[in-house]
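Task card 7
Instruction: Convert sequence to structure tokens.
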Amino acid sequence: MTTIASVVFELSELSRAHLAEVGGKAANLGELISAGFRVPDGFCVGTAAYRAATDGRLPPPGTADAAAARSAVLAAPMPESLRTLIRERYARMGSDVPVAVRSSATAEDLPGASFAGQQDTYLNVVGGDAVLDAVHRCWASLWTDRAVAYRASQGIDGGTDGTGVALAVVVQRMVDARSAGVLFTADPISGRRRQAVIDAAPGLGEAVVSGRVDPDHVVVDTATGRILRRTVGGSGSFCLTDGQVRELAELGDRVETAFGAPQDIEWAFDGSGELWLTQSRPITTLFPVPVRSKPVAAEDVRVFFCITLAQGLHRPITPMGQAAFRVIGSGFPTLAGYPPERITDGPAGFSLAAERIFADFTPVVRSRVGRAIAPRGMDFMEARSAVVLRGLFDDPRFSVVPGSRRVGLRTLLRSLAAIRAPIGAARALIRPAAAIRSAQRLLVGIERAPVPAPGAPIAERVDAAVGLLAGSFPVAPRILPAAAVGFAGLGLAWRLLRGDITATDAETVLRGVPGNVTTEMDMALWDLAVRVRGDRACAALVAGTEADELSVRYRAGDLPPVLQQGMFAFLARYGRRAVAEIDLGMPRWSDDPTHLFGVLAGYLRLDTEGAAVTPDRRFADGARQAEEMVRELIARARRRGRLRGALVSLGLRRARALVGLREMPKFLMITAIARARGLLAGVGVDLAAGGALEAADDVFFLDFDEVKAAAAGRDLRAIVAGRRARYAEELGRRHVPRVLLSDGTEPEAVATVATPEPGTLVGSPASAGTVSGVARVVLDPVGARLEPGEILVAPSTDPGWTPLFLTAGGLVMEMGGSNSHGAVVAREYGIPAVVGVPGATRDITSGMRVTVDGAAGVVRLADG
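Output:
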């Protein structure tokens, strides 16, 4: 049984060290008092009191809803010893002094979850009996429906068995407020740091917090004290003077410095003009500012572009995945003649935030060559990012640097020479088959590169992994000129046929192109499904067995031959791939084929008996339609001249032959990543066996140097545990900015965007056609069920997602442009697609009927 002992604390004696005893709000108030801020005095009824009062009275976990738990708390008598302690402490504040009684949960006012407004607050409470009643009701508010739902959304244990979140209660002297409100030390909308945002109203601040009044709104530049914007609220006149506004901004700056992070502050001016600080918590919605490998001056505002998001990876990337990116990323400056000092440090502009990888794009934005090339490339790959970057060109902070044209051209020419672009392009133009064979030879070179044996010294195996990654980059870009010739051929035909060709015509030319390693992979998995369907017993096994059990049986060699051998052959070629495959820390399909068995089960649910078009037939039909369109376009060109006809024929034939190579550079790098992962996985097994790591896959939460240090005897288990916790927390982050400034501003959040028609979402056209169906929002494809014909709605995709495309009726993506991975694959399969749709996974819910118009770039919601 929990006992009552030392459960009532003075606020002035508390700190973050007392979090478990008094909760987040009380701990923060103690820190503020210790730092010298003016905070109303008071006390805290600790979590032990809540546990003592509710011990054995809450229903067992899983047997009751929130209302039952709340009723049980209200019915629980407060121990008399506790009632006496609270009465005595309240009496010491004075006779019948008005107080505020607020919750302070153990999971409240923390960096990852604010819990703002989730539990109840009682103001102007007067008298000992009233305080006791308010404390009791605060306890019960831990079980309001909104608080329970919030905890569930945050993954916080609210168990009724005494092991979950617990509630302390703060009793604090009321400020006789003339004006009060909320101060954010960073703009919560744009994210800009050192820009204070103040909402204020006459009287108590609770009215502002709860939204019951229309407050005055003021934005202040903290660095200069300059008032940037001011809007009068419902009172009709400003309740703060300019001096008070600046005093608030200065106070916020000091509180932020004390806590080391932007703060959400509640404050009040009393009748004599004294400023009181009544609460402070971290602003939990801000995306962290990227940190560069090589720092620059703080006053130099930088532009950061999220590389992993642009590559279709919305989730965080493991520490070893980050380390691999540093090595591969070093290839970019190396090609241009500016190699980093240590390849494992990565390029100077390599940056991290929220376990995502950003690149410092400031040199690109400040360069005439960069401005000319980067946005044009993004128009095809990530259209919304291109819009954001162009929006920065008029910002004087990012004006073009004198001499940047010369430097940019030199960098571009060096890079093109390093990948042998002129030779590769010429060979592809003259002999496409030779270019394709060359790409295959480069791939085989990575597949067969010698590596140390499993028993070799750990440092040798780590260095070999680094060597594989470093060796992939100079090789992979050498394939790009051939793919570029294919796209240039289509562009040539477009120009020569101007006025006699439509976007849909050009898109049809690119359907079912040969040589795309990703679509070949998808067709191979579909072919396996067809063979499994032909064996009724095997098909029944797949349909009636969970994917994880099938995976276990596969590794044991215990599946029917058609499935066992078919999956073995598939993995021999494509087992190097994975969902989030650019992250070296993610298991490959050869490590765990569970996802593939789930996709197979989805394929078998497709009714092929009455279906007019199955995925293989649809792909073949697309190739046939493409060839017909090529012949038609050549005929149109010949009517305008023989030479024009010959050039259009050359361009379209090269497009059909070479565009499929666009996926090969990435496949080559994924091959190197998979081989490096295999080496490091063996290292992890050895380190775990020797006690240096808790588990073998902990190796992927270290970097290359740290793995060597662990092998040498350094204990890194605490570091791994911390990184695992941070990674798990980041998995829940829903929003990742495409572009972010070093002052915290997210340009896309402050840009003026045209409002689409009600019930309509607008993005970029990606694959022509119109389809209506039921939406399926998928944030992670692993374990996802996509019924045939459903509209796949995703934040972004990579090749690990594309097996789902075969049964999808259409595609909607938040990321991407007309030539992004998801768009290209959707076109090749002939399914309508719209990409670059802001907020698609937020505004569309699973089960909603939507219409995807891939030609117009519009998604219509059925209830709109």
